[in-house]
Amino acid sequence: MALLDAISGADAAVPNGRILRLVLLPLGFAAVMIALWQILCQTLQVRPILLPPPSAVWTVLRDNYAILLDQTLPTLSESILGFVVASVLGVAIAVALTSSRWLREALYPGIVMFQLIPKIALAPLFIVWLGVGETTSVVVAVFIAFFPIVVSTATGLVSAKPEVLQLCKSLTASEWQIFRMVRFPYALPYIFAGMKVGVTMVMIGVVVGEFITAQNGLGYIIMFAAGAGETATVLAAIVLLCVIGLGLYGVIGLAELLVLRWFGGEAPISGVI
Q: What percent of the chain has pLDDT over 70?
């Protein structure tokens, strides 16, 4: 019942006009851009190997949907697994960093230094350690995506209002009670902001991993099709990657809406992300 109340409350908090704008404006802009793309390709007679028209990309999607769907599933599963692991790892590290000054001073510089290393440079080591396959793609995605979740979560955990913390301490609340009832609820918008960045980084990491090691997935299709000069197939795979990314981003946005309503926060309908 509480979950149903949260869902209904979230729906009521978002005006219908706002929902229509959020849906219709992006779709309208995308339709205009696709139409311009088609017109320019036909008018300028652009070679298909350089830039195929949208109609050619649609033909590839229509005629090869079974193969493309079969290759989409590994990429989707790797993206979901990588995002879950990166989120759990990022939140756990952020909690550890904010719970102890000693841990923060000892670990944070190393985490930043590791993040500055181009992950593509670590790919040969991942192959040696983990072999060729989906595991390497997931690990690359996790190491790319966890850092923004760490930073956002840590920022949120220390953002609670000082007067609220003082009130809790005056009421003899334990550190765990303060964390559970004050710090964590205050950090939720920051956590979800980090997750939104992290899910885009996960997609990048998965595709990079599939470029390097995988023998299936949309990244593998892109590499194979690019080598064969089938640009329309490359763009068709990119379209499917966009669909996966938008779907995962939308799930995170819906989860944010429900969780903030559950904790009594404001529905995030006015921000950029």
A: 89
